[in-house]
Each structure stands twice: as structure tokens, then as C-alpha cells.
Amino acid sequence: MSVDPGRLRSLLGDRTARVALVLGSGLGGLVDALDDRLRIPYGDLPGFPQSGVSGHSGELVWGRLSGVPVIVLSGRIHYYEAGDAAAMRPALEVLKALGVEILVLTNAAGSLKPELPPGSVMLIDDHINFSGRNPLIGEPSDARFTGMTEAYDGALRGHMRAAAESESLELASGVYMWFSGPSFETPAEIRMARTLGADAVGMSTVPETILARFLGLRVVAASVVTNYGAGMTGAELSHQETKDVAPKGGAILGRILAAALPRF
Fold first, then answer.
1. How far does Cα 18 stand from its chain's mean position?
2. Which pLDDT value is given to residue 55?
3. Using CA atoms, how far apart are residues 159 and 98, in angstroms rounded to an integer?
4. Is residue 94 a contact partner of residue 7, using CB atoms and an 8 Å limit?
5. 25 is in an annotated binding site
6. Residue 76 annotated as part of some ligand binding site
7. 129 is in an annotated binding site
8. Mean pLDDT, to the nearest integer, of 9-17?
9. Measuring CA to CA, how many Å separate 39 from each of 59, 63, 73?
10. Where does residue 191 rank: exposed (0-12), middle (13-18), buried (19+ CB within 10 A)?
């Protein structure tokens, strides 16, 4: 189901933005850093994909971060909710129709590296689509053969690194592996992911990156580490841990984004 961009334009009035952010689990606090906020519940936008996951507020917010106009999607629908890798396509299509050119994706992720502890932020340099699902399956046009050599824009990543350095903040970088979820990975799957070259694992972002590149948007993405992968500490994983830890790393990511956006 598509979303009528006219409906959203009428609610936004003369407000526009070149940059949009998608906030992952527990990262809704980044909305509080925006000035001149206008909040629009997803329920007010017919056809807009709505998440049922706790930790996702489910609203579109227009505001300014460091003086830069942005549209924030506070919450996303996941593949594991709908069984549809293209579930976020209507949302991204309407952002494109509104003039968005840059998409900033965030997520909560599990670390596969001892030196990347909970509370850290990892800039995504590349990804591994381990789920095997692809949001462009069924797309009839030749645009479905979307190139992914530089899925994550090199210039935007450079701006993120420069912003972190200017704020004296640690910003790791690495490869993100997408598992379908919603169950967490097993210790054996985590060992496999490390062998295959992943640095963090999660249940989102990759399908949105593919869709965004298909739509011609530039993408930059970052993970907030909320836990170590299964089997690395002996502790069981939980979504509550994700919600509890994400705001700590989210505060760091918010500072980096605030410094990076004017550079975009």
C-alpha cells in the first residue's frame, strides 16, 4: 500500500528537508534534540507502515538539528513483523517524493568484537545480507538490479568521522550483518558471523539501505551497540536490555549527528 505524499505535504505546510533519519530501538530520545518540532503520528498517515515493537514511538517528526531541517521516522517496521522485506518501501518512497536526498539509518545492534562494548557507536561501512531476503524481489523494472558496491556513501561516512573527531568522541566502523529475527542469534551463528567478517549483527537497516539505493537516495548508517553477541559473555539476550542500553549510545550518536549534519 502506498502513502499519499500530498497528505503529508499538507500536514508539513512549507516545511521541507533534504535529510531524513530512521531511529532504531531505544533511540527515540534523539527526537528531543530537535528544535521547532512538528510531530505527526503514523496513524495520521494512511498506508504508512507502523511498528508494533516496544521502543519505537511510531511518529514522523519534522525539526531542526544544528539548524538543519530534518525529517525523523521515530520507529520502523521490521521484516520479522510483516514477513515483508519491502515493508518500509512506502515510507521511503514518500520521503523521496518530499525531496529527501540523504537517508541516515540507525539501529541497535549486537557487537561481535570485545573491543566494541555496549554503549559504543559503530559507523556501518558495509553489510552482509545473511537473511537472504531482498526488498526488490518482485520489482518489475530493471532498476531492481541496484548496484551495492558503495551502499553506504563514502563522503557522508567521512563527514561522520570528522564530526566525531571534532567532538572528541569514539566512532568505530565495521560490517553489519542482517539476521531476520525476531529471535536472537545462537552462539554458533555468532561464531559464523565473525568468521564471515561481520563486526555487528542486527534485525534491520539492510532492507532500507537496498530500498534507498534503489530510489536514488544517499545512505549513511550507524549502529548503537547494546550487547555482545550470544555466547560471548554467557548471559542471555533480551529486548529489555536493548531498550535500556540504547539511549546511552544514542546520546553519543546524537552528538555526532548534530556535528555532522551541517557538513552534509
1. 17
2. 54
3. 24
4. no
5. yes
6. yes
7. no
8. 95
9. 7, 9, 10
10. middle
191 is in an annotated binding site: no
Can you tell me the distance from the alpha carbon of 94 to that of 97, in angstroms, rounded to the nearest whole number?
Answer: 5
- Return the amino acid letter for 170: E
Residue 3's pLDDT is 82
157 known member of a binding site? no
Q: Which CATH architecture has domain 5-263?
A: 3-Layer(aba) Sandwich (3.40)
Annotated binding residue at 139?
no
- Across-strand partners of 72? 21, 61
Residue 27 confidence class, pLDDT cut points 50, 70, 90: confident
Closest CA to 5 of 88, 76, 75, 92: 92
Query: What's the length of the chain?
Result: 264
Dig out the grid coordinates for 68 from the structure.
538543519
Does residue 51 have a known ligand-binding role?
no
pLDDT at position 127 is: 98
* DSSP 3-state of 36: strand
Q: List the chain domain ranges.
A: 5-263
Contact 8, 98 (CB under 8 A): yes
Residue 149 gets which letter from DSSP?
Answer: T
Question: Which run of H or E residues covers position 38?
Answer: strand 35-41
- Mean pLDDT over all residues of the chain? 93
The CA angle 229-250-132, to the nearest 5 degrees, is 45
- The 3-state DSSP class for residue 81 equals helix
